[in-house]
Structure formats: structure tokens, C-alpha cells
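Technical annex B. To support the medicinal chemistry partners, we prepared a structural model of the target in complex with iron/sulfur cluster, based solely on the information shown next.
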Amino acid sequence: MATLTLRRKLAVLSDAAKYDASCASSGSEKRSSAGTKGIGSTEGSGICHSYAPDGRCISLLKILLTNFCVYDCVYCVNRSSSNVERARFSVDEVVRLTLDFYKRNYIEGLFLSSGIIRSPDYTMEQLVRVARSLRQDHLFAGYLHLKVIPNAAPELLAEAGRWADRLSTNIEMPTDAGLETLAPEKKPSEIRTAMARLRGKLDEATPDKAARAKPEKFAPAGQSTQMIVGADSADDHAILNRAAGLYTGYKLRRVYYSAFSPIPDASSRLPLRPPPLMREHRLYQADWLIRFYGFDVPEIMAGGQDGLLDLAVDPKLAWALKNRARFPLDVNRADREMLLRVPGLGTKSIDRIVATRRHHRLRLADVARISGSIDKVRPFIEAADWTPGGLTDDARLRARLAPPPEQMSLF
Ligand code: SF4
């Protein structure tokens, strides 16, 4: 096999990592590096954005250690039967790249995943070696996100959590049946066991006020997972049900939804077209409602149809349009929990509404100022100087609030 340059490996292994939906915005970012030479100086290969535990948006070098893989997951471009160009970094190469990019201020951290080579233990050990070297040998203080290889030894997971800020184990498919069909070498029980181990370690690392000794640090940014949307027949109801179960069962910080990307030579068992990206977006919105707005899955799905979310309007608006009898709500009196159900009002706006109304009665202009936009809110609230009259029940309301369809860009 021809020896690849480090630059070529970076191109291959950052491209191969783009299907890992760990980022708020996947894909690379162009960087200007006038006057400098070297790897990544023009393309910014593999640099993506993610959110740190404190909510800051940070740049990460997102790469695979290797895209060789002994597994043959049908949905994955890196599967053993795929005809893609293969590459593999050494541990030292990943360490060096990370440090170089970090010193040049291109990145604030590393997201590292890998195809499975030799065995889960061997692969996980390689990932851990990168993290250990960065932290111990180079005192790297940047953000580290490591993928967990299911079925790797518990000691390796424990050490991964010692060095990494975040760990993630991909659940992959919304249902066990989907995983068994499309990723025959992966076992749902092994993925759940890995997540449960991480949860156990995260629980142990939670400080106990009564205890004197500080617990050992373990992945302070918690664990997350990824689900592929649209490769199997699971509907949005099944996807959100699984996500809700994962949040409670494994104390997940985040479920990432990744719209399935058809592979040109993929088996005919898979759909030939990707699901609309809007489906992925609506799932993220619904997930947000579950985590921060007190909605449960059946309520959200009641806003959609036949197990799918409404693609034309966001899930909170879809729910409100089907539950108009609950509106309008008086912004000067309604409970915070009910205000969370008003389309167009976010948690911060609601906190400001609740704080402000202690001092004076809110008028529509106050709500508009606080929320930043009033069009979506107006039909669902009453204020000191406003009542929507027949607007809430107007048959044309949905059409008026649905954003006009956009022409997709070709470039
Ligand atoms: S284990 Fe499956 S999903 Fe992961 S890299 Fe290998 S083929 Fe792809």
C-alpha cells in the first residue's frame, strides 16, 4: 500500500469523521493562514464546531484515528466491504496534529473516533493512548471528546473518562431490530452495557456534599450518543421514545440525530434518498422540548401525524395549533410551566416575563421587546392591552405562521 502523507491522511480521516454528528455544524471551515506553511493551513480540514460544557462554541479537530474497520455496518462508508481510500494515523501523529493546530489557534480541542481495528480493546486502547499522551506528556488542557468502542474493557473506559471531557457511545439505530439488521456485528446489549458503565462512573464522580474526599474526575462534560435517522423505517415517535429513554436511563447530556447519508454503492436494503434535513432539525427541536420545556413524547407526537413530526412548522407550534383550546394564556398570570408551551417564547424570555410582571403588568409591546419577535406569540397570549379575539381559532393561522418553503441551494 502506498504511504500516505500526513496531509492526505488528514484529508481522508477528517472526511471520514464527518458522519459523526458530534458537532453543532459539521464539516470543515476555511482558515486563512497567510504567511504560514504546513498541514491544514489552507483547508482547515476536520475543523468543526461544538459546544463546551459552559455553553461556549468551540472549534474542534474532528478526525478518525483510522477508517479501516473490521465491521460491516451497511449504513457506514467505512464498513469493511466499502471501496473507500483507507488511512490510519499513528498515536503520535494525532498528538502532533492536535498540538500543532492548538498552538496555531485553529482549534480548542479534539474529537477522536475510529473504525474498529483488530478488536474493540485494541482500538479503544489506541484512543486512550492519544488522550493520555496529550494530557500527561504535553499537559494539553484543551477539550477532548473520545468515542467509546462498545465491548472494550471497563478499565479502558475508566481511563478514557480520566482524560476526556466527554465520552460518547453511538446507539446508532432507533430500534434494536434496526441495529441487528444493518449492523450485524454490533449488539444492542453491548452498547447499552458501555453506556451503563459510563453512567456508573459518572455517578461515582458526582460530588457528595456529605463526603470529605473529592471523587475522582470522570468525563466532566458527561456522555452523549448518536442516532442515525432515515436508514431504517423507524418513525419520529420511535426515535424520540428511544431518546427519552436514553436521557433518563443513562444520564446522557445529548442525543445527536444524524440524517442518513446514502452511500453510492450501498446495499439496496437502504433507502436511496436521504431523509429531508428538516426532519433532523425537527427532531432536535422536539428533543429540546423534552429536555427543557416539560413536554413528553406523546404530546409532541400529537402535533404531528402518523408517527412523524410536522416538517412545515416547529413541534411547539404544531402542538399549540392542535391544542388551541388551551390558549390564549394571560402573560401576567399564567404559570411558568404553561408559558413554556407558548410558541415563540423561549426559557430566557419566560424568566424575564415572570420577573418583570412582579413590578408591572405587561403589555404586548413589553412581550415583543422581551421575546424579540411577536408574530408567533401574539395569537396565543393575552396581555394588559391585548387579546387575540378570533385569531387563536382562525382556520388560516397555520398557513400564516408556517414559514414559506425555501428553494434549496444547489451550491
Ligand atoms: S463499526 Fe460500523 S459504523 Fe463504526 S466505522 Fe466500523 S463500519 Fe462504520
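Notes passed to the chemistry partners:
The chain has two domains: 6-220, 315-401.
The pocket of iron/sulfur cluster is lined by residues 69, 71, 73, 76, 78-79, 115-116, 183 (CB under 6 Å).
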